[in-house]
Write a structure and sequence with these properties.
two-stranded antiparallel ribbon, alpha/beta, 12 helices, 291 residues, globular, TIM Barrel
């Protein structure tokens, strides 16, 4: 009920930050059967964000859908990763926070660019959501979506197996021409499609924008919807070397950017790639000063 009330009343909530980069600091590769094989390390990351002041913790299940796993991890069990991922986050939070089932892209494309059908996408997300819901998550976050239609498929899949609320978040590439996603969809197109599909909140995360630029997206979303708005930027733009990306924006600049996002309409804020417990801690401090 706490999360439902936050959605209904648009109450401020601070989300956690990046999981993958924090696991890599601990010597692991992001993705794959991390929850099963390194339970204590995943718990450590969740705990560090909770102690930093986060109200909302995401399960470490972003890519744990059957389509993504079928293409990348032939021997890994996506079902077990979702179940353990939910158990770990819920176990750390107890009664102190909200746990959302984190669901991201399949890594595949819909026709005419890809070979998977919308029905296959919907079924894959339904299967993942059913496990997370049964494990006891308080709601769902569909995030890092580049294709609006894939986000719609995810919402439809979730809603076919659960009545828990879904917040849907797109990855934006530019603030120009109506704030466009990485597949070219405008914020207006995204909001209309996600609202029609039944989203309880609308968001923007990851992508190519700095926290200050994300404030422009927050403002655009605020004009387009009455639903609560979530913003989770990266720690600045990525610096790519080979197949590895690093992020250099420090906690103070990041937190100040999030405060601007709040000024422009965001009520839920957190961090995506490259953010750390220090980024969330600094944001919590500024939010505390704001009152």
């Amino acid at each position: 009920m706490q999360w439902n009330n936050a959605l209904a009343n648009k109450s401020f909530r601070l989300f956690d930050g990046a999981m993958g980069s924090e696991l890599m600091k601990r010597g692991l590769k992001a993705g794959g059967p991390v929850n099963r094989e390194h339970r204590s390390l995943v718990e450590q990351v969740h705990q560090s964000y909770l102690e930093a002041g986060a109200h909302v913790i995401l399960t470490n299940t972003l890519t744990a859908n059957p389509i993504y796993y079928s293409q990348h991890y032939s021997s890994a069990s996506w079902q077990e990763e979702n179940l353990i991922g939910a158990e770990l986050a819920l176990g750390v939070c107890g009664l102190r926070g909200t746990v959302l089932g984190d669901m991201g892209p399949t890594g595949q494309m819909l026709p005419p660019f890809g070979t998977f059908s919308e029905e296959q996408f919907v079924e894959a997300y339904a299967q993942q959501a059913a496990i997370l819901a049964k494990a006891g998550v308080h709601g769902f976050l569909v995030e890092t979506m580049m294709d609006v239609q894939e986000a719609v498929c995810a919402i439809e899949g979730i809603r076919s197996v659960s009545s828990l609320p879904v917040v849907a978040s797109m990855a934006y590439a530019t603030t120009a021409k109506g704030c466009r996603t990485m597949m070219g969809h405008t914020a207006k197109q995204a909001v209309e499609a996600l609202e029609e599909a039944g989203a309880a909140g609308i968001g923007a995360n990851c992508g190519d924008l700095t926290p200050i630029e994300m404030a422009y997206v927050a403002a655009a979303l605020d004009e387009l919807t009455d639903l609560p708005i979530l913003v989770q930027p990266n720690a600045g733009r990525p610096h790519v070397q080979g197949d590895h990306a690093t992020y250099s924006m420090g906690p103070q600049d990041f937190a100040e950017g999030l405060m601007e996002c709040i000024q422009q309409g965001a009520v839920f804020v957190g961090g995506c790639c490259g953010t750390t417990p220090d980024h969330i801690r600094r944001t919590a401090a500024l939010l505390g000063r704001r009152g």
